[in-house]
Design goal:
Blueprint lengths: L2 H23 L3 H17 L1 H8 L5 H15 L3 H12 L6 H16 L1 E8 L5 H15 L2 E8 L7 E5 L2 E4 L2 H15 L1
Parallel strand pairs: 1-2
Antiparallel strand pairs: 1-3, 3-4
Helix pairs in contact: 1-6, 2-6, 4-5
Length: about 190
């Protein structure tokens, strides 16, 4: 993990722990989960939202106003709305993807589940996700929640991350390994 990603992950973990604890105390974990899913979907489909959280050209006030409007439009809960406002004020909105991942992990842990990050060359069908979750459950022994994303550079196959374990069965990785093996021979 790069140093920047490690710092972002650390900052996001602190925010995630605080948000999770507040939601658990208020008995609003289901609401928190749906808010996080809504934010993740918004990040997936909106390049403008991604630009807002990562671009340094926006002032704290502009980011704060924008995330407040987005949160109101999405009808997000008070805890997440306040957290987004605080993150904008502290210029930390760039860690939002890490925050989403961290909160999902905490919610899954609370439920006795494990979260798996799956990157595929094309969008997985519901049947494929169900079969993958079942085979991961068999291997790990816990219910598995699949968080999938698409990276066409993989050409084919999957990259699955569960906790500290990673399985890379992508064609891009296999081609890279073959290229490295050919370099060693010649």
């Amino acid at each position: 993990m790069s140093e920047t990603a490690s710092i972002s992950s650390g900052v996001a973990t602190r925010y995630a722990t605080a948000v999770f604890d507040l939601a658990r105390e208020a008995k609003k974990l289901p609401e928190l989960g749906s808010d996080i899913d809504a934010l993740a979907s918004a990040l997936d489909v909106s390049p403008d939202f991604n630009n807002l959280i990562s671009s340094p050209v926006y002032t704290r006030q502009q980011q704060g106003s924008a995330v407040a409007a987005i949160a109101a439009k999405m009808a997000l809960g008070k805890t997440i709305t306040s957290t987004l406002g605080l993150m904008a004020e502290k210029r930390r909105l760039f860690v939002l993807p890490f925050l989403i991942e961290a909160i999902r992990g905490l919610i899954a842990e609370e439920k006795g589940e494990v979260s798996a990050q799956v990157v595929s060359a094309k969008k997985l069908t519901k049947t494929q996700e169900t079969k993958l979750a079942a085979s991961l459950k068999k291997a790990i022994g816990k219910d598995v929640i699949i968080n999938s994303s698409v990276d066409t550079a993989l050409i084919g196959g999957l990259i699955v991350k569960v906790g500290s374990r990673m399985i890379d069965s992508s064609i891009a990785s296999k081609l890279s390994n073959l290229q490295n093996a050919m370099k060693e021979v010649g």
